[in-house]
């Protein structure tokens, strides 16, 4: 069977999960429809997913149709999870973008359409819920053209009364947008020659694949109206990226999941070649992977398999493969995996309500962070606090729900803060000598701090000869510098600089690596004081769509949120602003926009990078270190 992988994407409540269930039921893969209201769907398995009606984790299911096997990758639908949406999109052959006939194009619809265009995924628009009262399809089409794309084509004639009926368009005049875009078809049409529907369909598919056409189909997923036609269109339209089962192996990991029995499951898309049970696969860095267990989606279930063919979604039990890893020949990937995971912008401290569950909490966070590249956590070596960093507040809510629902750990969470950074302003050096008060350590260290361009990160180098100061002492200096870099003059991590170890003296046999490890952060702090640091905060570039009647307020309110509007464009009944805004302000800006535009505004954002803070510097309290703080204060008195 030919394998096709599709994604279903939609705004919350447009009917994405219900459409998945309808496809499974209509194809005969499942005997009865699952219900979102009853929590019996195959894809939304988390309690929070059912409670909020949103998809949080990527799920995979499958059905057969004639000579096709169609895998559905049910991608997440909330803005905080766009990174996972991007990663899932990379494995798709095509996408169904669901638009509610009742609600039209919503904010998240536009965000997802933007992602589909960015990833160049061929897309069908499915207008759902057409059997509800008061539907005006012409308004829906206009809404789609204005807010998504002009390059749409309605593929069906629709009658809503006395009952819903759908028929394929047969009038050649209604194919004018297809004919006008192809010189050969246009010449035939002008010459009065008959045009074949097959030729028009072929041109439709070609334009879909180059992103210049988005066909519109209709139905009601809840009542299985239009679903069979949608399946036929999927089968005839989307083709797998590779067809040769005999070619060299190539697959890409797009999801990690842990079962309730603590099994670590790895989901990969097989782009070429065939995978067999007990195969040994060569991985990057010359590692080897033995396939001991393999499962594939089939008719609404996940079943064991001995063989997986080209195009298949394969689920392996494995403890080493990571997201975006490639099995086999990376050159055969038809589309690069989405590697631009946004860096976390917020952080907070968490602790278990019952301290006896601390180890359980740490183990749970390890698993969750393994499945979500946007969640990081670490334990502070001094305070022993558990600090997590993440992208958005809904993501934090999901993590907390996972901890309760899956791991049975209740936690206390502090109010999240934006993650700031510090960058040295100029080159500066400082040296602390051995046996010169108030230095209590048997070590001399000289360090030079040199600022680097924004986004460079940190570099460490040594000019001290290994013949004079051995590797263990030099490693200790590097460890001490790394510790010192965790908190600069304002208390935030120091970045975009080079730290050079210029000078070092030890006394044998009394000097130890611990002396160098303890002295290095104190020397670094004094060097940073001479250099000075600027506080950096994360900025987002934004594209804002708002109704034209709010143009004045949206423009004049921007400075209140430290936003800078760089361009303005009037299109249809909307104004489109582009600009930049500090990440700390975007939540409040979005909330206010949604409030006074009654939810009719859309704000697309991407991380632009770190820039000098626009407001007052934000100080972070320095973590206590009983051994070093007394020495630090003594040096502060003499400088």
Overview of this protein structure:
The protein has 639 residues and is α+β, with helices and mostly antiparallel strands. 28% of the residues lie in helices and 30% in strands. The strands form 8 sheets. Strands 2-3-1-4-5-9-6 form a 7-stranded mixed sheet, sandwiched between helices. A 6-stranded antiparallel sheet has the order 16-15-18-11-10-19. Strand 15 (294-298) and strand 16 form a beta hairpin. The longest helix has 19 residues, at 513-531. The radius of gyration is 29 Å and the shape is globular. It starts with a strand and ends with a helix. The mean pLDDT is 88.
Biggest β-sheet strands, sense, barrel: 7 strands, mixed
Helix content range: 25-40%
The dominant shape is: globular
Number of helices in the DSSP assignment: 16
Task: Determine Rg (CA atoms, Å).
Answer: 29 Å
**DSSP strand tally:** 34
- Relative strand content: 25-35%
Mean pLDDT across the residues is 88
How far apart lie the N and C ends? 76 Å
Spatial strand order of the main sheet: 2-3-1-4-5-9-6
Structural class: alpha+beta
Low-pLDDT runs of 5+ residues are: none
